[in-house]
Amino acid sequence: MVLSVERATRKFENGNVAFRNISFSAKNGEIIGLIGTSGCGKSTLLRTVSGLDQNYEGSILVEGKEARDHNENISFMFQEPRLMPWLAVIENVLFGVKDRVANEQSAIQLLEQVGLKGFEKQYPKELSGGMAQRVAIARALITSPHILLLDEPFSALDAFTKMQLQDLLLEVWEQKKATMLVVTHDIDEALYLCDRILIFRGQPGELCEEIVIDRPRPRSRGDEELAKEKKRILSLLNLEKVKS
Ligand SMILES: Nc1ncnc2c1ncn2[C@@H]1O[C@H](COP(=O)(O)OP(=O)(O)OP(=O)(O)O)[C@@H](O)[C@H]1O
Ligand SMILES: [Mg+2]
Fold this sequence. Notes:
This protein is an alpha/beta fold. About 30% of the residues lie in helices and about 25% in strands. It contains 7 helices and 10 strands. Adenosine-5'-triphosphate binds next to helix 1.
């Protein structure tokens, strides 16, 4: 298992508890969705897995080592691209890379792969939101991470750009086969992307259900089986409004 979470809890110094008693694991190359209403600890869970937040109880093993002692081979992507405005696109992709010269060709290739060939020398302010998020995808992949953590990566984008970037993410995943944890509020997105969806509930958040999505890719966005799963997820989250 590339990731193994055992009864993990995160309590903050002020008494808040983000999540409680969470256990799950991820196989190499799996895409796992995390869904749950606001405040149930999803972002905090990603931070603990990344090693940024080290004060958890229980065990979070990343490639066999506790997450607090291990932050190599992990990349993060957020809702907003978080690009450095004073750096050109290619420099943003290479930001944080130790040997920039050795990685420059990979950065150029990655930019081509995410549809930004020719934009290497442009600056973030010259890009659309979708283009900036493509740069963020390239930046997340430049280190060839084994685990990619995505916190609502496409939620700030319009519906069409979102669908394009979901497909792009699957394309690069096909090549790199990184394990991905994707936090999303978009159930359709989770059903389209993920092998497994973890449903969190409550505050503190607890894992209430694991749903295996056993549909081959590429999936159809109108798939009837997926629509049934969507109904189930909505009812698990108590979000289903049924007409009487
Ligand atoms: N640094 C902190 N100190 C104290 N409490 C915190 C801290 N960070 C998060 N929390 C609390 O932990 C809980 C979970 O927060 P988190 O941001 O992980 O939720 P989330 O599931 O990502 O929510 P959303 O869907 O709105 O992004 C919240 O109750 C929040 O107040
Ligand atoms: Mg969050």
